[in-house]
């Protein structure tokens, strides 16, 4: 991740796509809006539109963002946080493995909402991390999770 | 930062964390048992133990020290050392 690509403390969406190993249609972060200079936290946005594919089935008359997709968005925020803390490792084609999820969902997220995803590092090391993540819409907490992930570095 | 006033209390606190995360009852926990080989603690749980101990004792365990932690005894020694700094 090139910090020179930042403008006003924000990454453009193309940078998120460069950093995340997930690609279309499986990118659930639109933008990074803030990160702590010490590498302890990051804030990301996901705009939820009515055009998301999964709303066709979840649910036709009552579109709700699936909880597993919210967790995926949180995990991607965790990867972006890792990429910020361990930027050198990102050159080594890291593979990320979600190892543990402890989550609580408090209210549904629906088309028109903007998810604000705040991830903070409990511990991030070369080979993995534990992050606490909170997804909010406005002041409402949508979900909170503790995610543990492993990282396998390539060449 | 908490001082090591009572090494026994510190060990008790660490044992409780290890027991909770490893899901091994405290009475069955052996201080010299190896996390991976004897206790079945995988790398994810090991990282959880490190994060929990850091939080409880308000210390930062350097990343390069983590691979040297192989048993509960190693945790006690390291935390004692870090708290004395």
Describe the structure.
The complex is a heterodimer of chains A (155) and B (85). Chain A has a 6-stranded antiparallel sheet with strand order 1-2-4-5-6-3, covered by helices on one side. Chain A has 2 helices and 6 strands, in the order αββαββββ. The two termini of chain A are 17 Å apart. Chain A is 17% helix and 37% strand. Chain A is of the alpha+beta class and 155 residues long. Chain A has one domain: Hotdog Thioesterase (Thiol Ester Dehydrase, Chain A, Roll). Chain A has helices at 13-19, 67-85, and strands spanning 31-35, 41-47, 95-105, 114-125, 128-137, 140-152. Chain B has 3 helices and no strands. Chain B has one domain (7-84): ACP-like (Non-ribosomal Peptide Synthetase Peptidyl Carrier Protein, Chain A, Orthogonal Bundle). Helices cover 52% and strands 0% of the residues of chain B. By secondary structure, chain B is mostly helical. Chain B starts with 6 loop residues before the first helix and ends with a helix. Classes of the chains: A alpha+beta (155), B mainly alpha (85). Chain A binds chain B through residues 99-100, 122-123, 125-130, 148, 150, and chain B through 43-44, 47-48, 50-51, 54-55, 63, 66.
What characteristics describe this protein?
heterodimer, A: 155 residues, alpha+beta, Thiol Ester Dehydrase, Chain A, six-stranded antiparallel sheet, 2 helices, 6 strands, globular, disordered N terminus, B: mainly alpha, Non-ribosomal Peptide Synthetase Peptidyl Carrier Protein, Chain A
């Amino acid at each position: 991740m090139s910090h020179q690509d930042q403008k006003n403390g924000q990454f453009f969406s193309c940078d998120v796509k460069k950093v995340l190993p997930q690609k279309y249609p499986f990118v659930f972060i639109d933008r990074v809006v803030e990160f702590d200079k010490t590498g302890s936290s990051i804030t990301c946005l996901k705009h939820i539109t009515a055009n998301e594919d999964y709303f066709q089935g979840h649910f036709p008359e009552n579109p709700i963002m699936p909880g597993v997709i919210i967790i995926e968005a949180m995990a991607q925020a965790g990867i972006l946080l890792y990429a910020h803390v361990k930027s050198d490792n990102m050159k080594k084609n890291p593979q990320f493995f979600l190892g543990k999820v402890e989550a609580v969902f408090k209210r549904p997220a629906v088309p028109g909402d903007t998810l604000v995803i705040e991830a903070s590092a409990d511990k991030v090391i070369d080979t993995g991390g534990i992050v606490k993540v909170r997804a909010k819409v406005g002041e409402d907490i949508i979900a909170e999770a503790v995610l543990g992930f492993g990282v396998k570095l390539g060449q | 930062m908490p001082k090591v006033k009572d090494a026994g209390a510190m060990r008790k606190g660490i044992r409780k964390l290890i027991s909770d995360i490893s899901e091994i009852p405290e009475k069955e926990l052996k201080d010299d048992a190896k996390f991976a080989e004897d206790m079945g603690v995988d790398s994810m749980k090991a990282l959880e133990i490190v994060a929990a101990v850091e939080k409880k004792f308000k210390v930062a365990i350097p990343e390069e020290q983590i691979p040297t932690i192989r048993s509960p005894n190693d945790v006690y020694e390291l935390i004692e050392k870090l708290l004395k700094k």
